[in-house]
Structure formats: structure tokens, C-alpha cells
Design brief:
Largest sheet: 2 strands, antiparallel
Structural class: mainly alpha
Number of helices: 22
Shape: globular
């Protein structure tokens, strides 16, 4: 069921993109549909579950069923929020809709609590509502595949808008949908919101280069879907990135500034009005939460930056993501957050190549954005202290700009690959083997550099995967399907 719904929605979106935004070849359409299935295909095609459904079997009341179902050990304990929050929220939204109610109240937690106003259930997102047509387990699989698809489609369209050929744009799509942050947070509202970043940049570019009603309508649609995706902090971060990119493009164009600003402002205002059914209850409920008290209370005065050694360790794990999510030998750093700018060694190598060889304003723009996101993720003290003094940034978790850094590296890689293919630049043939040697040598278990010893992982610590578990519990037999208790 999830496979058929995914194919139907993906084909509809591709048809809209082909008719409204830009022509797409059939090969590109097929590739964009298939790429998300490299991770979710097993669950989609077999009717299985894409999610950490093994974790509930290590606590009561399902603990006694662990051995009969063959759940040997937890696949990834860091995914506990998915089965403890995101999946129950999805069930609560589906329950409300199936009983003819607005998804305003979640009666399954203690004496009840807000549902739509909690934001992260994304109760009004069209993709959540479509997913609710399926049983909860299958809806989660659909949501994972659709988040990957949206991320890939947006990156593809934006790369094409920058002048990349379809093959290069497909590499950008694969790079963004499988970047470290997207792959890990795919089932969180954090990941589903960041998937809209390339769409926002693409719509912003269209507003600058072709201001008018059509461009404003496209930007308005994208901003509305971003807001309804359920992560207000990420929406703020993405709008900030889009504003910076729009400013760079506007300064380069130096014409129609009034029309561009009017189109963008109108799109933003209408998006806020269309999202009012979601935003107003959230704004009313937020001051009553502990999170709001924490963010607006002492959190504003606590220094955000970390030591230079820990910043270096975080950057190192962006380059070698297998070091992330593990306990470390030293007290500082002892644990590196899971948010990461990692986009893969090939992407990094191509991005570095682009910085040296591609002479375009986009290279400088996304190079600067990548550096900004990496330093934010590393909690570099000077930058963290500066952001702490700015409104809204002072209550946001700005380490999550690592997503913007990962996307910037993907776009730089696409620009580098396009530049290498166009004039057949032979220097790329030298750069990639050099990068391979560097990455292979640095990833070696041998520690040749004393300066890196403080940042090596504890060899006794278990490795933690960054990929969401996809156990076959649901495919074992009908009566073995895990029941999602709320």
C-alpha cells in the first residue's frame, strides 16, 4: 500500500514540476522516483516498516515478546524519539481524522495535551494527511520515502536552475537526500522541514530573476508547505538562508529590486495567513510549555560556544561521520551531537574542487554558507557568541545550520562536476585520487598525528549507525505486527 501511494504522489509531483517549473526527461523522473528506494525500497516493496520498531521490545510491555520475534539487540538506540514521539503523534492525528475531528487534542498522553499546536506532528501538512490514508506503520514508511523524494526533487530542480545538466543535477539530488543529517533525521519533522531548503532557494531565485505573480505564487506555496512541515525553528533557519541567497542574487542582478522585494513580501505574508490555522494555536500554546520557558529563560544567558578542541572534533566528524555518535576517550569532547554537515567524501572532494576551479558567484555564496554552517555546527565560540546576541537566534539551536552546510557542499559538488564535464577539465582526474588517498589515510585506525589523539573514538564503544532501522518484524506474519501503543 505504501509503495503504490508513494508512486502515485511522486508521479503527481513530477507532473506538476514538469508542467509548471521546468521540463524533465523521463529518465530523470524515473531516477528521482527510484533514488529514495535505495534506502526505503525494502520496506516499500515488501510491506515492511521503515522505522525503529525494534526498540519498544526492550522495555515493558513488549519485552517478553523480544525473543519469540527474534529481536536480538537494538539496532540504533538514538532513534528512541521516533517510536516514543513521532509514531504516536502520527497515530493520534490519524485517530482524530478518522473520527471526524480536527487534530487539535491528543487524548492518549496522561489527561490529554495539544496535538496540532505541538507543531512537530505536522497535523496540517498535506503529506501527513495523505500518509494518514494508510495504517500507521505503512504511513511511516511512506513518509520516509516521500521526504527523501522531496529533498531529491528540490535539489535536482535547483541544480538545473543553476545551469547543471540532468546527470549532474541527479548527483545533487542523491547527495542531498543521503547527506548525513537528512538520512538520520528523515522521520523527524526536522528532516522533513530541511527537505524544503532547495525549493525555497529555487523559488527565491525565480522571484529575483523573474519577479511577478507566478514567481510569488510559487514562493508562497513553498513557504506554506515549509511552515506546515512542523518545525518552526527550521523554518526560521531556512528563511534566513533563502534571504541571504536572495540578497546575493539581487545584488548581482541590480534591477527590479522593488518588484522582487514586493513579490517576496507578498509571498511571505500570504504563506503566514494560509498557515494561521496552524501557527496561531502554536503561538498560544508555546508560552505554556517548559521548552518555551527554557529557551526564553536562562538558555539565553548560557554561553553557547565550546572549547576549540571540541569544535575541532565536531568538524572532524563532519569529514569522517563514522566518528559521530560515539563516546570519546577524553572528557572534552565526550559526546559529539548527531547534527552533522557530513555529505560524503566524494561530495566533499568535488566541493573543494569547485572552490578552486569554478569562478561563479554561486561558488562564493555557497562556500560562505557551507563555512557558516560548519562553524555553527562546531559551536565555534566567536560565532556562537555573535548569534546569541541576535533576536530569534538567541533562542534557536543554531547548531542545526549543519543542514545548510551539507546542502551547500552538495551544490558546490554539482557546480564542480558540471565545470569538469563541460570543458573536460583533466584536473578533476587528479583531484579525486588525491582526495581518496587523503580520506583513506585519515580513516585508518593508526594514529600517526599526536594532535588528533584527543579526538579519536573509544575503540571499546559500540558503533552507532546513522541509518534508520528497517527490521522485518511486520513482514514475519500478520499476528507479529508490532502494535503502536500510545
Amino acid at each position: 500500500m505504501s509503495f503504490l501511494l508513494y508512486i502515485a504522489v511522486a508521479l503527481l509531483l513530477l507532473w506538476i514540476a514538469n508542467r509548471v517549473l521546468m521540463p524533465l526527461s523521463r529518465v530523470a523522473m524515473l531516477a528521482l522516483i527510484v533514488l529514495p528506494m535505495c534506502v526505503t525500497g525494502n520496506a516499500l516493496l515488501t510491506g515492511g516498516l521503515f522505522g525503529p520498531v525494534d526498540l519498544p521490545y526492550f522495555t515493558e510491555p513488549l519485552r517478553d515478546m523480544r525473543v519469540p520475534l527474534g529481536v536480538a539487540k537494538p539496532h540504533n538506540g538514538t532513534l528512541s524519539d521516533l517510536y516514543a514521539q513521532m509514531i504516536p503523534w502520527r497515530k493520534a492525528v490519524q485517530f482524530a481524522i478518522s473520527h471526524g475531528r480536527w487534530p487539535l487534542w491528543n487524548p492518549f498522553i496522561l489527561s490529554g495535551t495539544q496535538l496540532a499546536a505541538a507543531a512537530q506532528p505536522a497535523a496540517y501538512s498535506p503529506f501527513t494527511l495523505i500518509a494518514c490514508l494508510l495504517p500507521v506503520a505503512h504511513s511511516i514508511t511512506f513518509s520516509a520515502a516521500m521526504t527523501f523524494f522531496l529533498a531529491g526533487l528540490g535539489a535536482f530542480l535547483f541544480a538545473r536552475a543553476l545551469g547543471c545538466r540532468e546527470l549532474v543535477a541527479l548527483s545533487a539530488a542523491a547527495g542531498w537526500m543521503y547527506a548525513g543529517g537528512m538520512a538520520f533525521f528523515v522521520l523527524w519533522s526536522l528532516g522533513s522541514s530541511w527537505a524544503w531548503l532547495p525549493f525555497v532557494l529555487f523559488a527565491t531565485r525565480r522571484c529575483v530573476h523573474d519577479p511577478g505573480v507566478r514567481s510569488a505564487a510559487f514562493l508562497m506555496t513553498v513557504l506554506t508547505l515549509l511552515l506546515l512541515a512542523g518545525h518552526p525553528e527550521t523554518a526560521f533557519h531556512i528563511v534566513f538562508c533563502g534571504s541571504l541567497y536572495g540578497l546575493v542574487e539581487l545584488l548581482a542582478m541590480r534591477r527590479n529590486a522593488g518588484r522582487v522585494l514586493a513579490s517576496a513580501a507578498a509571498a511571505g505574508v500570504i504563506a503566514l495567513l494560509l498557515s494561521a490555522i496552524y501557527l496561531l494555536p502554536m503561538f498560544e500554546a508555546a508560552p505554556q510549555t517548559m521548552e518555551q520557558q527554557f529557551r526564553t529563560g536562562g538558555y539565553r544567558d548560557v554561553p553557547r560556544g565550546v572549547t576549540l578542541a571540541e569544535s575541532g572534533a565536531r568538524i572532524l566528524t563532519d569529514v569522517f561521520p563514522h566518528l559521530r555518535g560515539r563516546w570519546w576517550m577524553r572528557k572534552v569532547p565526550h559526546w559529539v551531537p548527531l547534527e552533522t554537515s557530513a555529505a560524503g567524501s566524494i561530495i566533499v572532494a568535488l566541493a573543494v574542487y569547485a572552490l578552486f576551479r569554478v569562478r561563479r558567484r554561486e561558488t562564493a555564496c555557497f562556500g560562505a554558507l557551507a563555512l557558516f554552517g560548519i562553524l555553527c555546527g562546531a559551536a565555534w565560540s566567536p560565532l556562537a557568541a555573535l548569534l546569541q546576541k541576535l533576536p530569534l537566534f538567541d533562542i534557536a539551536l543554531n547548531e542545526r545550520f549543519t543542514f545548510a552546510a551539507a546542502f551547500s557542499l552538495v551544490i558546490l559538488a554539482a557546480l564542480g562536476l558540471e565545470h569538469a564535464l563541460a570543458p573536460r577539465d583533466k584536473s578533476l582526474g587528479h583531484a579525486l585520487p588525491i582526495a581518496l588517498i587523503i580520506f583513506a589515510a585519515a580513516a585508518s585506525p593508526i594514529d600517526p598525528l599526536p594532535v588528533l589523539r584527543a579526538t579519536l573514538p573509544d575503540p571499546r564503544a559500540p558503533t552507532r549507525s546513522h541509518h534508520t532501522a528497517c527490521p522485518r518484524l511486520a513482514a514475519a506474519r500478520p499476528d507479529a505486527r508490532p502494535r503502536f501503543q500510545i
